[in-house]
Amino acid sequence: MSGVLALLADVQDPAVIRGASEMSRRGWRVHVLSLRMGGIPGVEVHALMPRLAGQLGRAMVGRQIRGLLDQLQPDVVHVFGGSAYGALARHADGYPVVISVSSEDVRILHHWEPFRRRELIRTLSEADRLLTPSYAMSHMVATQLPGPKPEVIPFGVDLSRFTPGEEPEVPTIGCSLPLEPEGGQEYLLCALRLIVQRNPDRPLRLVLGGEGAELGALDTLSRDLSMATRTSFVGFIPPEETPRFLRGLTLYVMPVLRDLEGYAQTAMEAASCALPVVASWVGGLGEVVLDEVNGLLVPPKDPESLADAIERLLDDSSLRAEMGANGRSLIRGSYDWRQNADQLEALYQGLVEEQPQTHDYLID
Predict the structure, then answer these.
(1) Cα–Cα distance for residue pair 205/186, rounded to 1 Å
(2) Per-residue pLDDT reduced to its tens digit, 18-39
(3) Which of these, 178, 240, 244, 239, lies nearest to 214 by C-alpha position?
(4) Distance of CA 162 to CAs 137, 270, 273, Å?
(5) pLDDT higher than threshold 80 for residue 51
(6) What does the radius of gyration of the chain's CA atoms come to, in whole angstroms?
């Protein structure tokens, strides 16, 4: 079965690009309604361009969305982010609506001011289905909303793209996350310093991918810790370059302070490349990084525990190989993108089948 699928989403979001492309390949007529400009091969993108700021601009976008939906007549409307695009989904009244809950939504539900929280609860409660990429996030949403828990469908990984590589001659630790306070990269730099202090002759490199407000502070910290010669800041790594980046590493480290959208995805991609992963034990990361199976979990903000875990893996090539193989097997079994796309398409089809059937009658 196929039909018309409308995505209310950021057209530059990698998950949106992959999902739209896959559903188009499966025969769905996919349209993306986005507040940003961009293009996806095989998918029609409609730019939502508010000509005015504030409430009047939002009202104009709402009318634009309603006009497009009435023209397209989608079988399903899938909204990515309740706080980002969810309010716009109210203009999809009469169409089946799926909302993928974001980490920003979870923060609002648990921590933000009452008005934003009430508005988001209203938006999410009106959806026909709610989705999250992890069971931890599903639980966090369910504690704040009436009704059943959101369904869990991970974003998944394309195992044909993310494949194992050869270990580099110089042991190399990699981390590619936004350089923001939540990334915890300063604790990784401190852990690197501890490892070198314990064994000054150990050959070791750290490669930090990503951009963000903490770049200057992290660069300064690497110099203050005398780790600048061992640390490389390589900037933003485009999605198409991520597999090559991962294949050049010995192990992948995620010293994050809390679980944010996309963090588990990077852990899945690293595991797909048969890399053992060292990660903070926060949020849904423990669903992807199974402690002592395909990686090691450590407390956040704990450089010494982080250093111990990294050293243990660097010193044991057999353990690295075993955890790497376990990781790729885990992804193949539970997080293969094609299987996750099957789940998503089945959800769409179920929604379509739930809709009341209309009949056209010929009247003489």
Answers:
(1) 15
(2) 899 999 999 999 999 998 889 9
(3) 178
(4) 25, 8, 5
(5) no
(6) 22
